[in-house]
Design goal:
By secondary structure, this protein is an all-alpha fold. About 75% of the residues lie in helices and about 0% in strands. It has 12 helices and no strands.
């Protein structure tokens, strides 16, 4: 235990028990029927069952809309927080963290109660509001951190060369902030696709997302079907992380245009 490499053993054990083993069990259950025989029917159900297909398409639609809403709201907020002329207090950034100190389920239930008190019908609009409310900080802070550590000499150089404020933003600030934007999109899009509690509470379960279908499968003791859907969703979410081209591509996008 005197070697530095020995300190990795506890982390390796944790990784095997709580990451690798659950994923292996999901894969095993996904390709078995209730009798333990190999089958592909659970995977095919994702492509053939109308309820599953519809819930997945709705989930993708809601996730894209929520990500776009969070981006449109989050980028200007992150820009203001990172700008030393527009924001002179570090306390302002802390205000966006405060809601995260409250349990997400409690925030969602409180939001549903507010809509009920105002007489607002629960539906897709309230769902998107709740999604944006819960996931907006995950969009703001990656962008804020990227903008905050940006080398200001680039902006000063662009201004010295006669660039207008809009040109500085388009050709310097926005390209350099792209790694934060990509990270924010991933951090909002992926949990939105897999969530189920928010949709159930803020729509009275009238809009069933893909996560709700998976949760329903396990709740009804249909472990194999649930594992298959969870595996498919895991693979799809994993593929989305490759769309920007990985870390290197994000860093290249963050370069100057």
């Amino acid at each position: 235990m005197g070697k530095r490499s020995s300190w990795v053993i506890p982390y390796f054990i944790f990784l095997v028990l709580f990451v690798v083993l659950p994923l292996v069990l999901i894969a095993v259950y996904a390709f078995q029927d209730s009798y333990g025989h190999f089958t592909l029917s659970n995977i095919f159900a994702f492509f053939t069952d109308p309820k599953i297909v519809n819930s997945f398409l709705v989930s993708m639609e809601v996730a894209l809309e929520n990500t776009l809403i969070c981006l449109l709201i989050g980028y200007p907020v992150a820009y203001i927080l990172a700008d030393r002329d527009l924001n002179r207090s570090a306390v302002t950034a802390m205000l966006f963290i405060l809601p995260m100190w409250i349990n997400a389920l409690m925030r969602t239930m409180a939001t549903a109660e507010i809509f009920s008190w105002l007489g607002i019908h629960l539906g897709k609009g309230t769902l998107l509001f709740g999604m944006a409310y819960d996931y907006l900080p995950f969009m703001i802070y990656p962008i804020y951190n990227q903008l905050n550590k940006m080398d200001r000499s680039y902006i000063e150089a662009a201004q010295d060369l006669g660039a207008t404020p809009s040109q500085v933003f388009r050709k310097v600030t926005l390209p350099l902030s792209m790694p934060g934007v990509v990270s924010g999109i991933m951090m909002v899009f992926m949990p939105t696709v897999s969530t189920f509690a928010i949709s159930e509470i803020l729509t009275n379960n009238t809009i069933q997302l893909f996560g709700s279908v998976i949760q329903e499968q396990f709740y009804n003791m249909m472990w194999n079907q649930g594992a298959a859907l969870a595996l498919v969703m895991l693979l799809l979410i994993g593929l989305t992380t490759l769309l920007p081209g990985g870390k290197n591509a994000a860093e290249q996008e963050g370069g100057l245009i």
